Amino acid sequence: MNQEVTDFIEALKEPWHKELSAGLREVVRQAIPNVHERIQYKKPHFLKNGKYAAAISTSKEAVSFTIFNCSALEFPEGMFEGPPERKTLKLRKGDTFDSEQLVSLVGQASGRL
């Protein structure tokens, strides 16, 4: 685990931002056991073989989780936004996510990296 990413999550002001971000980080770590974590563009990025696999970003109203390299994947209707090569899930206060589903999606997307 990268200390900068840990510090980023711990420094988030809203408890729900921290909780969702930590949970999403764990999703990535389960999907990509040897993931490389770093802070880039002021947010956590997760790389496999030097290529982007996922990213977490926060705004006042949401925690966003972007999965890269996913053109060939089928995504649940209405949950994700964005072009075919990268899809973003926006979670708002009180939202939850299906960890198993996200682990599967991240694992499939990163399988080609």
The fraction of residues assigned to DSSP E strands is: 25-35%
Oligomer: single chain
Q: Can you list the strand order of the major beta sheet?
A: 1-2-3-4-6-5
Helical content, roughly?
25-40%
As a whole number of angstroms, the C-alpha radius of gyration is 13 Å
Poorly predicted spans: none
Q: Quick check: average pLDDT?
A: 96
Biggest sheet, in brief? Answer: 6 strands, antiparallel
Give the terminus-to-terminus CA distance: 20 Å
- Look at the helices and sheets and give the structural class: alpha+beta
Number of strands: 6
Brief sketch in words of this structure:
With 113 residues, the protein is an alpha+beta fold.
Textual characterization of the structure:
Strand 3 and strand 4 (63-68) form a beta hairpin. This protein has helices spanning 3-11, 15-31, 99-110; strands spanning 36-40, 43-48, 51-58, 63-68, 80-81, 86-91. The chain has a 6-stranded antiparallel β-sheet with strand order 1-2-3-4-6-5, covered by helices on one side. The model has no long low-confidence stretch (mean pLDDT 96). Helices cover 34% and strands 29% of the residues. The chain contains 3 helices and 6 strands. It is globular and about 35 Å long. With 113 residues, the chain is of the alpha+beta class.
Write the layout of secondary structure elements.
Layout (H helix, E strand, L loop, with lengths): L2 H9 L3 H17 L4 E5 L2 E6 L2 E8 L4 E6 L11 E2 L4 E6 L7 H12 L3
Antiparallel strand pairs: 1-2, 2-3, 3-4, 4-6, 5-6
Helix pairs in contact: 2-3
